[in-house]
Amino acid sequence: MSLFSGLSRPMKAAGLALVGVAVIAAVIGGITLTSGGGDSDTATPPGTTPTSSDGAPQPSSPAPGSPSASTPPASSSAVPPSSAPASSAPPASQPGQTGQPGRPGGDQQASHKWVTVRVYNNSTIQGLAEQAAKDFRASGWNVSEVKGYPGRLPETVAYYRPGTDEEAAAKALALEFGFRAEPRFKEIENIGPGVIVILTKDYKTNDKDGS
Q1: What one-character DSSP code corresponds to residue 28?
Q2: Would you give the end-to-end CA distance of the chain in angstroms?
Q3: Is 174:180 a contact under the CB 8 Å cutoff?
Q4: Which run of H or E residues covers position 193?
């Protein structure tokens, strides 16, 4: 006599369905127990460092949005801005190195060569003034007049008016060509501007050694 004897046919069908469902549930439960048996029964609490099977702590993953531990911090030292080069002003001109404003400049001697030079022959040597004027011009001096001078003077001298540009020019010319420089004497005081060189027989043409 079976379990379902005495039951009507609909009741027998319902009973069989229930038995089938129970069998299926038992099979699924067995599979679940088999596959999950190796898992840990306890979950890792929040904030606790998980450990591996040998007991060593596992590294925790960085929180989202936090900088990576492998990224080096930005250098805090900023490169100092390079200092701007100081503007160099041209050196001031030294006294005695330039001529008068608007006149040619250069070394101390050349700066006086723009001054007019008058060459007078006070010797019996023909053409002495012309030759001296040629020497002066070849050296860059501004010779404006060449002629004779009467009377008798002892030596060749460059004459100037004290306190004017003629003084420095006369001294530079005399030093270059080897004679003396003196203030003008009375007879030539009223002659036009410029250094007056009165030549005597002691003048040596093209002699610039100052002896």
Answers
A1: H
A2: 166
A3: yes
A4: none
Mean pLDDT, the chain, integer: 73
Q: How many Cβ atoms are within 10 Å of 157's Cβ, its own excluded?
A: 21
d(CA 204, CA 44): 120
- How far is C-alpha 146 from the geometric centre of its chain's CA atoms? 56
Distances (CA, A) of 169 to 98, 129, 165: 13, 19, 6
Residue that is written with structure tokens 């060459």 in the block: 119
**Tens-place pLDDT, residues 93-130:** 343 333 333 344 445 556 889 999 999 999 999 999 99
Instruction: Encode pLDDT of 157-169 as tens digits.
Output: 999 999 999 999 9
Q: Which two tokens stand for residue 134?
A: 């040629």
DSSP code, position 211: -
The backbone torsions φ and ψ at residue 100, rounded to the nearest 5 degrees and listed phi first, read -70, 155
- pTM score, two decimals? 0.49
Give the distance between the most distant pair of CA atoms in the chain.
184
Locate 175 and state its tokens.
């030093």
In what side-by-side order are the strands of the sheet with 116-121? Answer: 142-148, 116-121, 195-199, 157-160, 180-183
Cβ atoms 133, 177 nearer than 8 A: no
Quote the crossing angle between the two packed helices 165-177 and 128-138, to the nearest 10°.
100
Residue 173, judged by CB atoms within 10 A of its CB (0-12, 13-18, 19+), counts as buried
